[in-house]
Amino acid sequence: MRIRKRLWLPKEHGAWAMFAVPLGLGALSAGGGGWRVLWLALAALFFFTAREPLLAWWRGRLRGRPVGGAFTALEIYLALAALSGLPLLVVHRLWGMVPIGLAAAGLLIWNARQAARREERTLATEMIGVAGLTLAGPAAHYAAAGRWTVEAWAVWAVSASYFLGRVFYVRLRVLDARGKRRPQKQTVRRRCAAYHAALAVALGACAVSSPGGFWFLLGYIPALWRAGWHVVRPARELALVRVGVQEVAYSLWFLVFAVAGFAATAAARP
After folding, report:
1. Could you say which of 13, 124, 176, 225 has the lowest number of CB atoms within 10 Å?
2. Residue-wise DSSP of 186-245
3. pLDDT digits (tens, 9 = 90+) for 48-73
């Protein structure tokens, strides 16, 4: 705990999975990459970690209570991210990293602003946060392949759709456990059910029309099952640590089968 606080490491299990799984999927689906992937992973990691001190500094500034060391930690992490990313531009000439880096920076600042104002739990904010964190996927694919491809954005779409489902599911579990008003819970339950039903239909269509579709469907099965179960049978208790560990396990399951899906799709190409 002390090490985490001293290093300003993010404490949410879900955020770590949301960052690391798309990164791994992007790199593994492209294959190779070597040093390019390593530099990208380091730059993305330092940039991701910078959110925690940025948020602490911003909140302290708004409340007139500066948080000691937060701004210094922010500067250090951003400097390390820049230094790690520099070889991608100077040595490997991957200038396509610039627009995706600017997009990620913009989303980071906006998300931190919402969190500092305690507005980070709105559905729109969480969805935009997912879009920002999963940008690590196409960036890793670009670093590994050395060029932008349609597959890089397929990595983003697959990753974002998976973690958006997690947003709907966790919101449902939290509201059920807190005993919120019935109309509010019903709205969240309907949204969760509708999203996962649409996702299941899309995955089913993909499974019968794409060589890798069956593997993608397998990757989503645990997430679809747990969401469907809690839509039908709401749970009144919520053990956050257990749910966090389960979500990490489901995310790793998704990673394995999503990689297999991209591999099967690539193997089927003429």
Report:
1. 124
2. HHHHHHHHHHHHHHHHHHHHHHHHSTTHHHHHHHHHHHHHHHHHHHHS--S---HHHHHH
3. 999 888 888 888 877 777 677 888 89
Both tokens of residue 142?
Answer: 């670009």
What is the reported pLDDT for 153? Answer: 95
Distance CA 136, CA 104 (A): 9
Phi-psi region of 93 (alpha: psi -120 to 50; beta: other; left: phi over 0): left
> pTM for the whole thing?
0.89
Distance from CA of residue 206 to its chain's centroid? 22
38: enclosing H helix or E strand: helix 35-49
Q: Is 58 exposed, middle or buried (0-12, 13-18, 19+ CB in 10 A)?
A: buried
Quick one: tokens of 216? 């993608």
End-to-end CA distance of the chain: 52
Are 156 and 138 in contact by the 8 Å Cβ rule? The answer is yes
Which residue would you say has higher pLDDT here, 67 or 219? Answer: 219
Q: What is the pLDDT of residue 34?
A: 87
